[in-house]
Amino acid sequence: MAQDVKNDYMEPEISTPEALTRNRLRELEQRKRTPAQKVLDIIFILLPFVCGGVAIAEYLLVPNNSTNPHPERYFYVLIAAIIAYAMYLMIGLMKRSRGDVLALTKVRYYAPLISGIFIFLTIYDYLTLKTGILTQPFIPCMNYIINAAIADRALLLECTIHTLRLLFLGYFLGVITGLITGIACGYSAKVRYWINPIINFLGPIPTVTWIPIMMVVASSLFMGAVFIIALGAWFAVTVATMTGISNVNKDYFEAARTLGASKQQLVRNIAIPGAVPSILQGCVQAMSSACVAIMIAEMLGVESGLGWYMNWQKSWASYDKMFAALFVICIVFIIVTKSLQRIKKHLLRWEIGDEQ
What we know:
Blueprint: H1 2-8, H2 22-31, H3 35-61, H4 72-97, H5 105-130, H6 142-151, H7 153-187, H8 189-202, H9 211-217, H10 221-246, H11 250-258, H12 263-300, H13 306-315, H14 319-347, H15 349-355
């Protein structure tokens, strides 16, 4: 009888704050939405189609202020963007039909941003191709940029491969070296005594400051650029690794020593796993530093790559090709950094689950 009374008055499991996961809270928020809010969500989800239609209508119907060779290419790009969003929406609807009540949350979240991009493209096309308010050819319209990218696609691809080769070579050298010095400094006070002054000396100096020096001192421009990229990555990973290991609970080390763990086992089984979140964050920061360093290095001295291509086309006043390279740089670096963040998220999925 007492057990029955106890069961009647027990709180449901989700009533405690600890039991409410982030996804569960979102589900509860979704259920509490008013009909007006749901209608507003539908409007926002459909808004990219409207804005994409406006961009197409402006491009096709408003007269051009200058010649526009191969006008269909920009039109195809707009159509492809609308189709991509439609597929994204369809995937969300399919997941929703299978019981995932939060499937459309991401679609709803990104819909205003996508709509804003379409509006920006509309205004940009109107100010360049349609009216010439933004002076041509210094600020080319989108169709000019697309035409330039297609016309020079072979050289752009070659420069992209060279940039990625230089980027990853310097990045991984810096990351590996940073892991070694960071682990040594984080675990050993003696090593930290000698390495800390170097970190404190190099830390305040921006990586790009060393580029003119390395372009003169290095045996080749390529190796000088590799060193500059590796230096920035080394610093970020070293500091992050050292901080992560220093923040590991000291009780874990004491318990492991009590059980007879050796120094190598303490480093391998306690220090490094405990510092993994900080290490991965340092790797992400190192990639950002490497992307900045490689662009400046290629513009200042390296005779290949996307940065070199931009500088070369600027000297020939080929601004459409310069903008095409700029877009390629943005796309490549976004893919690289997003891939690294996804790897980090996958490796730390246990930590994300704890937070939820």
